[in-house]
Amino acid sequence: MIFWHTGLTTVIVWFVMRGNPRVDYRVVAVASLLPDFIDKPVGRIFFKERFGSGRLYAHTLLLNVALFCVLFFMRGRAKRQFVLVPISSLLHLAEDGMWSKPRVFWWPFFGSKFPIDHSPWSWSSYFRPGIIVQEVVGLLLLLWLFGSHGKLNREGLANFVKTGRLE
Ligand SMILES: [Zn+2]
Asked: Separation of 34 CA from ligand 1 center, angstroms?
């Protein structure tokens, strides 16, 4: 899912941080997809036989909390930007409802092997009704957020792409 994660994550981060002009929402949007950018190619394409699942290491609480620890070694602007990465990727886990997959979420406490996901998966399974509803919700949230900040026009979008700022 793309808009489900970018839409929900961006709106939640905006809601918490609104009024803070230094938030780069481009970082938020990209990082909201980070767990899938990592796990989907690994578990569904490159090591399909071995894992057979699109939710692996990057969908674990451990790895996402570890990302926060990287912040100890950073300072200034880089730190302010990077803090948005673990926040956004943790929100991704929540949006995936990962607590219902405790063997992945709490990895490796319930065993180091990731469970195989037997639900049918192919490019066409992306177009299932449940997923479409979630994508539409995410897209509407994004449209609302951008619209309410006057960004739904060529100039506004160009400005966003350049600065990552909403307000
Ligand atoms: Zn995911």
From this structure: 8
